[in-house]
Amino acid sequence: MKLWILRHGEAEPQANTDAERRLTAHGREQVLHSAARLLGQPLQAIIASPYVRAQQTAALVHDTLGFIEPVRTVPWLTPESRMQEVIAEIEQLGLEHVLLVSHQPLVGALVGMLEHGHLQQPARMSTANLAELEGELPPLGVMTLLSSSFAP
């Protein structure tokens, strides 16, 4: 399995709720930079958190890639999601090439868990950071972090 994990781009600091925060102009530029790294990859699905900034990030990636399938919005990719649920949902997808668009602290913890098998080494995931992992799932801790890029 190849899994790309993308943190949303820079978002406005405040909104009525955290879920309503939108990308800034800089955040959109960050996402476009990260999306360019996905050109030519054999993605089967783009799966995103329902939060506005993640939806905007996923839509920018979708449009940049000319991806045919719609973005899948799921409730299990929010900042507070439980790691066990996220991993179980990824396994149930039955896909080999997936992009997840979500938030900290979930994305850092997820990369760390998939790479190391525990939560003691979360990955540093700044805004629009794209991590690329490859390996079998399960077991945990056997995926290889192929790359991690930070958007300017």
UniProtKB/TrEMBL annotation:
NCBIfam families to which the protein is assigned, alphabetical: sixA
Classification of source organism: Bacteria, Pseudomonadati, Pseudomonadota, Gammaproteobacteria, Pseudomonadales
Coiled-coil spans in chain: none
Protein name per its UniProtKB record: Phosphohistidine phosphatase SixA
Organism: Pseudomonas machongensis
Highest taxon listed in the record's lineage: Bacteria
